[in-house]
Amino acid sequence: xxxxxxxxPIAVAVAIALFFLFLALVAALVRIVRADNPFDRVVALDxxxxxxxxxxxxxxxxxxxxxxxxxxxxxAVMSYLGTVAFARYLEKGDD
Length: 95
What we know:
mainly alpha; Helix Hairpins
């Protein structure tokens, strides 16, 4: 994953960032399972989208692949639109 070298400052920062992103992902998954209402689940799903977005940016920086930044932008737009759609659906209720 780190091209065999972990002593560079960027590689260490990437490892730390990915560790904390993994913790945030686990916390969001726990929140989805234990949420009392659907609004909490929507917020947790939005957090998962943000964590995936940050992971893509971290990988783009580490591996020097700017194409991943384009993918991150597309994921951000889709995550935003999905959250708005869920919020509008939940706002209407069960009519």
